[in-house]
Amino acid sequence: MKPNYRRCVSCRKVGLKEEFWRIVRVFPSGKVQLDEGMGRSAYICPNHSCLQAAQKKNRLGRSLRASVPETLYQTLWQHLAQKNPQNQNLG
Q: If we measure between CA atoms, which residue out of 3, 5, 8 comes closest to residue 52?
């Protein structure tokens, strides 16, 4: 089976689907959430620079054609802090 490649909305890096976080605008409700449901998806690298640029320049919102709630960004920062405990005070 062919591997599934995706592109980060922030740095534009191409990689395997499993390397990225998936953000979904669920159909038909339009709710934006982390990796659950079917609908329009955007992918982002799980690192500090990509998440910071995506939040500052609204890259997830533009890609999903929806407003991304601040709570979702807070959840992503928490996931990043858990993944890299030495970088907690960067976000």
A: 8
